[in-house]
Amino acid sequence: MTAIATRVQALTVETTPLDDVRHIIPFTDAHRPLLWLRRGEGIAGFGEALRLEFHGADRIEQASAVWKQLAAASTVSDSVRMPGTGLVAFGTFAFDDESSATSVLIVPEITLGRRDGRSWITRTRRTDAHAMPAAPHPAPFGAEYRLTMLPGALTREAYKRAVGAAVEHIRAGELEKVVLARDLRAHLPIESDVRRALVELALGYPECWTYAVDGMLGSSPETLVRVHRGTLDARVLAGTSARGRDAESDRASADELLASAKDVQEHAVAVRSVTDALTPHASSLQTTRAPFALKLPNLWHLATDFSGTLADGSGSLDLVAALHPTAAVAGTPTDAALQLIRELEPFDRERYAGPVGWIGADGDGEWAIALRCAQLNPSGDITAYAGCGIMADSDPERELAETKMKFRPITEAFG
Asked: Which CATH architecture has domain 11-128+148-414?
């Protein structure tokens, strides 16, 4: 059902406390799970009470406007009152304005949540329904599987050629940075339990946002924006190096990243784009003084954290619309970078590098950039994506090696 058809649809929502539910993934659907999880805390959805779909250049603005109408029309009873309680929708949005992929907000029939040692259940029904949906029960996982992901539309050699072409455009002064991605493909038998991959991601990358929304799943290290009671925070990642083989080489790899002129400049471009997007909405905006090395299980990233106070009453989707696409996933200038991506990538990114997360009735929410991810289609076809920021001094071999590191969470989760 499209956003236009459901614009005035009202919902009845009830959130009540639960005894502590330590593991919420087993409650999700084995084939189309809804999940937002970090450090064992977050929300999981079951079923669809309402599905809102959006397309085009103003898809995020559309979603924000329709969501505000829906929230105003709905009746919400919430005795828990924590982030993720009450009326909640999971969302995933296409990266490109010209993408054929559908952007969605999904309100589950049942949402289970866990945060700060407290658990809850939210039941949602349409106002014309007679009863609230029954609570789901945890289900055992299906049989194990092992998939091998193969090159997709852009082979390794083709990717290196694309990087070389991008460097030529940058050196010619047409743009400062562009992010180029490549793809891997596989097929998952329809009866396979997708939750197995989510468990691997959540256990292997506990500091990342492990998510699953409408077949888009992964573990993203990058917080696009989080809004809570008038405050915001975000994390920018740009600049990457491999982890070392031992403690000494690992520290040396982090130090090398912090001293890399190419990575520091790439990071500065990304920080500038986020600063420019958030400043009009904030009465105060602070950042870490200098980039720091963020350690993940398979690589180091240069990172900068933002925090601030909202000045204009913006909700999380309003800020998502202002931020997307950041220079960390597109490049700069944005229009030139997007055009070059369309020329050099022989595929539609769909929702890769787009916003993914959740929003509540008050507009608060948590949104990440859909990275370290794959799109699973109803047919069982899987497409995984990984990209790198290309600058004037980028080396094609090094950029290819970086994509291999970034594919690792997905290839290991399914393989």
From this structure: 4-Layer Sandwich (3.60)
